Predict the 3D structure of the following.
Amino acid sequence: MSDLDILQQQLLEQVQKTETLADLDAIRVSVLGKKGIITEKMKSLGSMPTEERKAAGKQFNTIKNILAEAIESKKEQLEEQEINIRLAKEAVDITLPVRPEKQGRIHPLYQTYDEIIAIFGQMGFAVAEGPDIEDDFHNFTALNTPKNHPARQMQDTFYLKGEENSEKFIVRTQTSAVQIRTMEKQQPPVRIIVPGRTYRCDSDATHSPMFHQVEGLIVDKETNMAHLKGCLIEFVKTFFELDDVPVRFRPSFFPFTEPSAEMDIGCCRTNGELKIGAGNDWLEILGCGMVHPNVLKACHIDPDIYQGFAFGIGLDRLAMLKYAIPDVRTFFESDLRWIKHYGFVPLDIPSTGSGLSMTGGNKR
Ligand code: DAH
């Protein structure tokens, strides 16, 4: 037996005896690594006479391949062993009882959000979105509310701190800003609703500094006030799940619509209870009107060709009315008991029937 054969024999025995992957890797490095025994032998080839080098090269290569193969197959064997040991240790006890599953609830605001989108979706409205942080132009100026216009005082605005002398950004006071952003990008026909967060400096049982609105906008050549009324009456009936709802449109003022109106629905208030859809009292639920020509002009749309209507709904207020939630602040308190009571099971279909009631009157 040559020295080389003996070496090969010894190394193969070492490999066979190894019990862990870490040890095996150490052997691999000591044999085939950069400074390994076989690698060093390969390096010595350079200094050998040519005839000797050929034969030695062949031998070294053979031994290298035999060892590499042995190490590889030992590795596979050890890996399988390790898996088997782990499987034995980590055995799953399938007789254990199932852990009780905790199911989340859909927040009533988002339930309302989805209902409103579905109703207007069926009427052909697309959903548009815009940023919560707005500039003065989109939130006010382009909506026919220039600087120093008294109508700006209708909305207690949160201004963001900015560099001195630079433009001050705000958190949007109304989703109406997205009317402008949409018409800047899209020529009529436009038919969108904009559900989203809005902000005003106000807080009590019926006002929260952060609240939600759904804006609606249609612009094309022939849309008129009758379409506005038909669309909103249909919406209210579907939303409150009533066959008929008495409605009334009261003249009002919004800078971005002319004429402007507020829509009231019939209700009755007895013993602190509010019943929607019947009675001789009225409840204001939204603002609306025909888009002011100045708004169209600000978006480079010709008001002699196009016209349309817009409306703004307080989403929180509608959710409060439909689901009898008396205090808007509870929407945002993250109280699990509250969400368990008022929340919806995913894929739940809201209970139907008229006469949904609540105590108190809430407004926004
Ligand atoms: N932006 C109004 C507000 O926040 C609501 C509103 C009223 C929106 C009339 C409209 C509208 O688009 O036509 O008070």
Q: What stands out?
A: DSSP finds eleven helices and eleven strands in the chain. Residues 351-364 have pLDDT under 50 and may be disordered.
